[in-house]
Amino acid sequence: MTIHNSQFPIHNSQFLSRMGVVAVTEVRHTLRQGSYYAATVITVLLFVAAGVLPRLRAAAADSPLASVEGMLSSEQPPITQPTAVVDDAQVLVNIPPEHTGLVVVDKATAEAGMREGVFGRYYHIPADFLASGEIAVYSDYNQLLSTTNATPCPNGAKQRAPAN
Asked: How far apart are CA 61 and CA 144, in angstroms?
């Protein structure tokens, strides 16, 4: 069965122009609503997050933070980079002499040393360390963006000469 154009009261050109009017009206109506823009932005952010989060996880796995546990053991390399320790628990009694960069200070001195570039990082051993087992590490170095496990010496930091 064939339908001829003569059977429809609207000619092709009129039909197309009316469809164009409807399409323009729908687009204008959609663009006036804030929910359209919110949905568009949220969709883009979801795709960006889906691409970025795995990369951040991979970067964190490739460059984990150094373990604080056993940092003064004989199996670890000596600490020669200027590193401060705030020992509120008073658990550090004998520091091996080969750890020339380790300095026991109070918290204000450690924070001032970080600001001035004397220390690249400092460890804070809280008074309740024996009960909690937690040690805080403060550093001006962004480990997530690193390609190695090493923490560089900050600009202006001086290496201490070994004590004789």
From this structure: 9
From the list 133, 140, 136, 134, the residue with the least C-alpha distance to 118 is 140
Write out pLDDT tens, residues 11-48.
667 777 888 899 999 999 999 999 999 999 999 999 99
The pTM of this model reads 0.43
**Largest separation between any pair of C-alpha atoms in the chain:** 109
- The answer to whether the CB of 60 falls within 8 A of the CB of 52 is no
* Extents of the domains making up the chain: 5-62, 67-164
> For residues 134 and 84, what is the distance between their CA atoms, to the nearest angstrom?
17
Structure token pair of residue 5:
């154009």
Q: Give the Cα separation of 86 and 106 in Å (integer).
A: 5
pLDDT tens-digit readout, 82-102: 788 888 888 887 777 777 777
Q: How far apart are CA 3 and CA 40, in angstroms?
A: 42
